[in-house]
Hints:
Elements: H1 2-7, H2 22-31, H3 33-36, H4 44-51, E1 61-65, H5 71-78, E2 86-90, H6 93-102, E3 107-110, H7 116-119, E4 128-133, H8 142-155, E5 161-165, E6 179-187, E7 194-201
Parallel strand pairs: 1-2, 1-4, 2-3, 4-5
Antiparallel strand pairs: 5-7, 6-7
Amino acid sequence: MEIRMADLATGSAPAGGKVANTALFFRRWLANPLQMGSIIPSSRALCERVARNVERAPDEYVLELGAGTGVVSKALLDHGVPPEKLIVVEIVPDMAEHLRSVLPGVNVVCGDAFALKDTIPQEWQGRIGTAICGIPLVMLPFEQQKRFVDAVESVAPGKGFLLFTYCITSPLPYRKLGLTAKRLEWTPLNFPPASVWRYRPAG
Length: 203
């Protein structure tokens, strides 16, 4: 099964070698599709497009929410984010353990991305340059989308977030959420084809 799933993404194998634990990812998708959004990890092409849109001052952190098996995390490290400046939040305990094993030096937090004020240490709050979302927000009701936006704003005020998604048009009702939206990237070299959007607080 794992080999056949990877074959579906010819030319866009998941990044990170052993980081891309496709079997673990697929098991979690079967357990809760709304947490995962896809049946295989993101491709190298998509991960690189996310990483190259990170904005971070030298003393700031990058916050990745819904890190899965860590393929985006690996791309962030490859693009120069120091491990000690990368925070990854993953709600599933066995996936958080996997991340700790394959991402040495990275701050891995097993917790809720919708309650970041209580999930990440206070000393990191207000010091985040870019937040990245791998959670399929498009599948959630508006109230949950709003809760996520508020959670990010509580720890990264004014920064907004990057969201990678399979939607060509905005997956979020951004005006209703008080956000601006811009599609930064699109890649057909992902299964399915994917976009990277940047959302920021309006005004």
